[in-house]
Amino acid sequence: MKTMTCKQLGGACDMKFTANTFEEIAALSKKHGTQMFQESDEAHLKAMNDMCTLMQSPEAMAAWFENKRTEFANLPED
Predict the structure, then answer these.
(1) Which residues sit opposite 50 in a β-bridge?
(2) CB under 8 A, 24+ apart: contacts of 67-72
(3) Going along 1-78, which residue ranges are E strands?
(4) Measuring CA to CA, how many Å separate 35 from each of 10, 40, 48, 70?
(5) What residues contact residue 66 under an 8 Å CB cut-off, 6+ apart?
(6) Is the pTM of this model over 0.85?
(7) Which residues are within 8 A (CB) of 61 and not within 5 positions of it... i.e. 6 or more apart?
(8) Which neighbouring-strand residues pair with 4?
(9) pLDDT of residue 33
């Protein structure tokens, strides 16, 4: 198990997510983001807007995901 925060995953807060794989942690982050969107949390809405801008470039988005996968892989086990 490894842990990353919302901020580490491009979000806006220090909520921690723990998972065995990057895909699992990304899914937890997405679920959290959906909840924050439904609550109209300003900080998270800004972070989501920033991600939407990044997604305009498939190459930039792929590089971002690869960077986060590497960051996850390099984390120590909890």
Answers:
(1) none
(2) 68/8, 68/9, 68/10, 68/22, 68/26, 69/22, 71/4, 71/8, 72/2, 72/4, 72/22, 72/25
(3) 2-5, 16-19
(4) 15, 9, 12, 26
(5) none
(6) yes
(7) 54, 55
(8) 17
(9) 94
C-alpha dihedral (24, 26, 30, 36), degrees to nearest 10 = 110
* Cβ proximity of 55 and 10 under 8 Å: no
Q: Give residue-wise pLDDT tens across range 4-53.
A: 999 999 999 999 999 999 999 999 999 999 999 999 999 999 999 999 99
- Tokens 């895909």 identify what position? 23
